[in-house]
Amino acid sequence: MRVVAFTGMPGAGKSEAVAVAKARGVPVVRMGEFVWEETKKRGLELVDANVGLVATEMRQRHGMDYWAQRTCDAVLRDHKDHALVVIDGVRNNEEVETFRHRLGHRFELVAITAPPDLRVERLIKRGRSDDSTTRERVTERDERELGWGIAKSIALADHSIVNEGDLPSFRKAVAELLDRVQSEKH
Predict the structure, then answer these.
(1) Burial, 87: exposed, middle or buried (Cβ in 10 Å; 0-12, 13-18, 19+)?
(2) Smallest Cα–Cα separation from 56: which of 35, 85, 25?
């Protein structure tokens, strides 16, 4: 099994990269699903402020790699027979270290990057329930994620894809990277 994990600032294109993997039949484990699950369990609405609060609180209470540990458990339990698995949502260095420790040579980190103005435009247009809907809210979310250490996870990536062009070109770049990682021998 090979594991590709996507990291990047909100609106950079991680969801589109995940969509490429899903379209190819690759199982995806989205770290945010665990956060959403905990948020719902507490009876909170799935909006950015609540999701961010729960994500931060659990990291403070159980360690910065809390969500990565949960994700590794799911990957190793539910997807051990797949040739390739994708993880969406790496946010900090501690998570990267956990994935590298628990998944070893099978793990590859991919940074998706895009210019800030383009990311803001995408987030506002996307309109997911936990998205920020104004430039100010996007800036607050960016600051929260930078506080978690996402810049370091981006810097530690094994691969990087810049997403500032058209969607077909980005999707092609993601598909090519997934093919390359899956065909590498370790």
Answers:
(1) buried
(2) 35
CB 76 within 8 Å of CB 102? yes
Residue with tokens 């379209």: 23
Is the CA virtual torsion 54, 56, 62, 68 positive or negative? positive
Beta bridge partners of residue 52, listed in sequence order = none
Pairing state between β 84-90 and 107-113:
unpaired
Average pLDDT, the chain: 91
Domains and CATH numbers, the chain: 2-183 (3.40.50.300)
Distant-in-sequence, close-in-space partners of 101: CB < 8 Å, separation ≥ 6: none
pLDDT in tens, 117-171: 899 888 888 776 555 667 788 788 888 888 788 999 999 999 999 999 999 999 9
